[in-house]
Amino acid sequence: GFMGAGIASIAVQQGTIVRLKDADHARVGKGLGAVREVVGERLKRKQVTRTQYDDMLSLVNGTVDYSGFGNVDLVIEAVFEELGVKQTVLREVEAVAPDDVIFASNTSTIPIARIAQASARPDRVVGMHFFSPVHKMPLLEVISTPETAREVTASVVAYGKQLGKTVIVVNDGPGFYANRILSPYVNEAGKLLDEGVSVDAIDAALVAFGFPVGPITLIDEVGIDVAAKAGNIIADAFGERMAPSQTLQQVISAGRYGRKAKKGFYLYDENGKKGAVDESVYDLIPNGAARTEVPRDEIQRRTVLAMLNEAARCLEEGILRSARDGDVGAVFGIGFPPFRGGPFRYMDSVGVGQIVAQLEELNDRFPPRFQPAESLIEMARRKERFYPE
């Protein structure tokens, strides 16, 4: 798959011998082709020599069975985001790999402990959540469960750094950290669509705030089906405050999966280059062609505050080990504006008391989506900050 090939492409550039396994030869061939494309781009830019290019490609090969898995140190699973499929792969790997193999899942939302329930050695199971596209996105989120051995976590952190990634370690839970805080942000953008706010108004507001792209462009890029599947897992875990919007569900039902299908919220040419908003998408929105004007600062407030509030909950629940990890993860993983310092630095700059007041005002209008995290209420009462002044 796309993610597996991406991980392989950065691994061979660091001298790792890689064995790709997929369901059939066509998919293995596609994976090897994707690795060649990424490494070939470096050759084209004269970042590597022809000899280095050939050496890197000699490190990767493929299989449709588990031949060659008898002496591996690390297996990274990047299969379909379905618990049963991931557990099947885990059992198959443990049947052929050494007892001390580390099994890492690249799942973006499924709790690692649930995947590890299928394992005979749950202490060797960990999460390695890479971000797409792997060869460009700097963050690696390492997820440890209460059963994950400390040396397993240390090993994958060290390997992630060897791959050139900025690594944060988070504790296990639905959506982990980055995708968990992204969900309410994207959901709130969807709720604005439900109300009749235009696609380009929402995206323009968040680009003006400092994000590299707006939330609607983001889910078109990631794949609306992928975003919806992740959103459903998080909604199941957190209930009404994470409920997805009607618009996103309607767009999925209509078979619009975003840029990869050349049909989403935006128009795409035959090369997948984004154009203007696809006006026909408004036929799928509850308000239809009726447009609602919402001020730019309110669009920003609703989407960003939803994210900040969830970040505070992650710290409160121990998903995050520190505010610093939360800021690094948001800036490097989901494009939170670097000049704002990350969610926690930004809350300090605005003032936690002011953040709570804004959340309470929004929660009066849209309960229970903006109910302030208990830790924020307590910090506001004590006039505390996340970082020393």
Describe this structure in words.
This protein is α/β, with parallel strands linked by helices. The protein is 50% helix and 11% strand. The protein has 16 helices and nine strands. The chain has helices at residues 2-12, 25-44, 50-58, 83-96, 112-116, 150-162, 178-194, 199-209, 215-222, 224-238, 246-253, 296-316, 323-334, 343-350, 352-365, 374-382, and strands spanning 18-21, 60-63, 74-77, 102-105, 125-130, 139-144, 166-171, 266-268, 274-277. The strands form three sheets. It has a five-stranded mixed sheet, sandwiched between helices. A two-stranded parallel ribbon has the order 1-2. It has a two-stranded antiparallel ribbon with strand order 8-9. The longest helix has 21 residues, at 296-316. It starts with a helix and ends in a 7-residue tail after the last helix. The model has no long low-confidence stretch (mean pLDDT 95).
Fraction of residues in H or I helices: 40-55%
**Order of SSEs:** HEHHEEHEHEEHEHHHHHEEHHHHH
Residue fraction in strands:
5-15%
Number of helices: 16
Structural class: alpha/beta
- What is the CA-atom radius of gyration, in angstroms? 22 Å
DSSP strand tally: 9
Strand order of the biggest β-sheet: 3-4-5-6-7
Distance between the termini: 46 Å
Main beta sheet, described? 5 strands, mixed
Mean pLDDT level:
95
**Uncertain runs:** none
Key structural traits:
389 residues; alpha/beta; 5-stranded mixed β-sheet; two-stranded parallel ribbon; 9 strands; 11% strand; globular
